[in-house]
Amino acid sequence: MGAGAARAACLAALLCVACTAATDGATGADAGPARVLYVTHSGGYRHDCLATSARVLADVGRDAGVWLLETSDDAAAVLTAEHLRGFDAVVFFTSGELGLDGGQKQALLDFVSRGGGFAGFHSATDTEYGWPEYHDLIGATFDGHPWHQEVVVRVDAPSHPAVRALGSSFRIFDEIYQFREVRSGSTVLLSLDPSSVDMSLGKDNPWGHPLAWARSSDAGRVFYCALGHEASTWEDPRFQAMLRDGIGWVLGRR
């Protein structure tokens, strides 16, 4: 099989998802705003945009009437079974090791498998390298950021609720990740247009260069987007529309 055919086969494997992750879910009028926990614990590199991201996430959820946000930079303090009972979704913008014990790790996995939503942004794939079940949950593992520039992002699944406001493609300036150990069973939503970068700086992976995807975990839904290094990305109305729709999707809201 040639390199192009292998890449197409791998992308085809990625472009599948359980039927529970393909439906729109309930409408946003169900029971008032959901409760979302935003975890910004930085055990490694701490991004300058974190304060902006927390403000934007709170504003987007409130303005859409979809969620109310609680933010914590102490993962061990909030990722307990008791605390998670008060939330409908957890969002990670983390890095490095989070200092979680086995019970706290299991509490997060159980939360999602029992129907809680989970979303991750940017360096949420650059965290907890010793916890393989977490990387199975989020869907991939960080493998460098060879490009930090304006790029073209392709919308690969324009009918998916999380990205249907984005058109067929868009340009954005951000730090662009590549990944190793990309898990199958995901719907790839966004990917890098390789013609917009110098590909000699990165790796020609057989799974291509996905930048956002949707997954299921038993009864729960998972959404990840690799964009978000720059504060300007969080201020971008297009990105904010994706926040509203992507987190709304993991919550089962339109």
Protein described:
The protein has 254 residues and is of the alpha/beta class. It has a single domain (3-250), classed as Class I glutamine amidotransferase (GATase) domain (Rossmann fold, 3-Layer(aba) Sandwich). Helix content is 29%, strand content 24%. It has eight helices and eleven strands. The strands form two sheets. A nine-stranded mixed sheet has the order 2-1-3-4-11-10-9-6-7. Strands 5-8 form a two-stranded antiparallel sheet. A hairpin with a 2-residue loop joins β10 (210-217) and β11. α2 packs across α8 (237-250).
Strand portion: 15-25%
Please compute the radius of gyration using only Cα atoms.
Answer: 17 Å
Mean pLDDT: 90
Order of helices and strands: HEHEHHEHEHEEEEEEEHH
User: How many strand units?
Assistant: 11
Question: Any low-confidence stretches, pLDDT <50, length ≥5?
Answer: 3-29
**CATH topology-level fold name:** Rossmann fold
User: What is the molecular shape?
Assistant: globular
